Amino acid sequence: MIHSRTALALTASIIALAGQAAHAQQTTPAESAPAPQAGPEEAQSPAAGDIVVTGTRVAGRSKLDTASPVDVLSANSLRQQGTTELGASLATVAPSIDFPRPSAVDGTDAIRPATLRGLSPDQTLVLVNGVRSHTAALLNINGSVGRGSAATDLNTIPTVALDRIEVLRDGASAQYGSDAIAGVVNVRLREARSGGGVSATYGFYDTDIDTARGHRSVTGEHTLSVSGWQGVGFGEDGFLTVSGEYLERQPTNRADYDPRVTPNRVTGRFGDPQVRQYSIWANAGTTIAGDWKLYGWFGYQDRDTRSAAFPRLPSASGAFVPTLYPNGFLPLINTKSTDVNSAIGVKGSLGDWNVDVNVSYGRNKIGFRTLNSANYSYGDASQTDFSDGALIYDQLVGGIDVTREFPVFRSLNVAFGIEGRREGFKITPGEPASYNSGPAFPLAQPGAQGFVGFSPINAIEKHRQNGSIYLDLEAQVTDKLLIGLAGRGEDYSDFGTTATGKVSIRYDFAPWFALRGTASTGFRAPALQQQYFTSVASVIQNGAPLLTGLYPSTSPVGAALGGLPLEPEKSTNFSVGTVIRSGGFDLTVDGYYIKIRDQIGLSENIQASFSPEVAAILAPFGVQAARFFINGLASTTQGIDVVAHYRLRSAGAGTFDFTVAGNVNTIDVTRVPTSTAVLDPAPTLFARSRILTLEQGTPGEKVTGSLDWSLDRIGATARVTYYGNVNQPGTAADGSADIFTGRHVITDLELRYQAAKGAQIALGVSNLFDVYPDATAAALNSTGVVGFPYYSPFGFNGRYLYARAGLNW
Q1: What's the pTM value of the predicted model, to 2 decimals?
Q2: Which residue, 514, 659, 719, 637, is CA-closest to 181?
Q3: What is the dihedral angle through the alpha carbons of 33, 38, 43, 45, rounded to the nearest 10 degrees?
């Protein structure tokens, strides 16, 4: 009810604003002030007439003329911020997108996923120039938002390479295939035949940290990024745009004071990891014959990230490595990600048909090392750095898209196509000392402290193929009525076939008012990482090694416990909305309802101690506990998105862009499996904390208000964002261990001088008033490491000051 009242109040307020703004815009030309000449910044800002290519295959359709809600986010709006991450900058300007910054969750510290409408990160499809992008090799298996997902890493694409991003907030599996349950993020790369620029941004934190056990101040923890781009023209219309970025970020630390040491001091490191990263992207296209064009792009990123595990105090580590670390140690998890994103294609016309043929290849390799650590079983003879192995995912996609417009009704656009995809997933083991048991203390926990390496029993290499075909019809039946129909069929080599469909309709009652709605079915194929990821380690119990960990559901251990081959998740999506526009004002209000069934989740550990039956099943495998992925969760998501924009042009004062955007979202898990194919009843397969993470792990309300102002070469941005309360659930059944972020408002400011050609400079502050989520209570933080909830949708680093200087030519 609270969410419903908030949604109604938000909608009513902005519709009232719509009426006032529409009335204010109905002036005669004589009453209107002449518009000033657009400055360099304004010329690249999104406007009501933005042409989109996402959610529709009709050429020339604007974002306000579509049947589905589409946001167009300019590259400037993403670059003119203090953040260095694309995921975080997206979340700042798009209220339906959230980007938590988890810490102390191993690889997810480095490969952070974004969410759309509160759904799992892998339920949003990411495209690059309209072509399916690849996911990261990482599977999020720890206690973060998005647990159990393998999602696309948006931060592999630097903002300097972007022209804009289009966000389709609607189910689109029938149009684009697997993963598009929540929607689609389409990254459009910069295309330039000339010009270029270079820019350097330096920032640091200036913050007061109030944790449950004490106060301290930090000035420092700097970030430096240097980026540049160059456009090169050749032939009549050929272009090559090369973009690159180098990023160096020092780690942040927002840990609390450790009560286990005297005097109390900060022993942990909890916050953003240390990062060194470089990226290079090239985007090109040219006419090759007639109206046929050759196009393609290539992107490469190398990211070296170092996050911290929990500290090992001398009272515990001294029993094993008294000489090696007499004062204890803090293990570091070193994640090195190398990412490739590439495509090549041709497009042109065959008679009256427009044809686009392309092939894309993407690959992500994540290598793990544990630094400043020890394998206790080797004692003081242990090495301190370990190579832990690697995860590798690659994807090859080929597709043909054909479109044609027919003079049926007002117009009928027919699009169809085929697509083939091959995916691969591989785990390579680490060096023996990273996982095995040494001779000094054979009963000690084996493997590197902080992150145990992948052993040969975890090694795996799997592939699959799928083919798909689609048909997409969009008819402008009358001047006012638009109807769309889409259908898609897919066949996978592992689980078989699936089919999805979508119907959309839009009716323009007047030039200033339209209603729109869609109904669709969707699916998400189980990721190879979910099907085959294996993380099994030895645990010493009563002097004997036993195995425990994550097994594939179809492995001998998983199958013995009742694991089954994973099936695709399926969804039913409904949306209905309105578009209001008049002069410089536009408003969209879209409600949605998403029902997901057969949802995939990572189970809790099934312990041998649960029952004699489970003990008897696990004993032949030498396994103490096992977990695996299971279909069977079901959820209902409903909410409302509101986006209001008003542009005011003044001859003397410049151009003002006002935007208010809000999202109200509720998620209810309606079904939780309680048995497997063998165990009925089974132990608790999905704990209370897992269910509440799905329901309350992202804010139920988020509202952003921003003002962009430009006058000739001077500009400024002021942004205020309200985040609703988020629950980071604990293990206590009565909720006493739950950690809440609280409701908070974040304010960002930037002032800049930016010429079309020549020098540029900007000064800004993110989180002006140094706001933190509610601190983690001392009673729930016995080690002092986790100072703030890492479910926080705006992070937990405090005030950040930055300066940006550059040169355009």
Answers
A1: 0.92
A2: 637
A3: -50
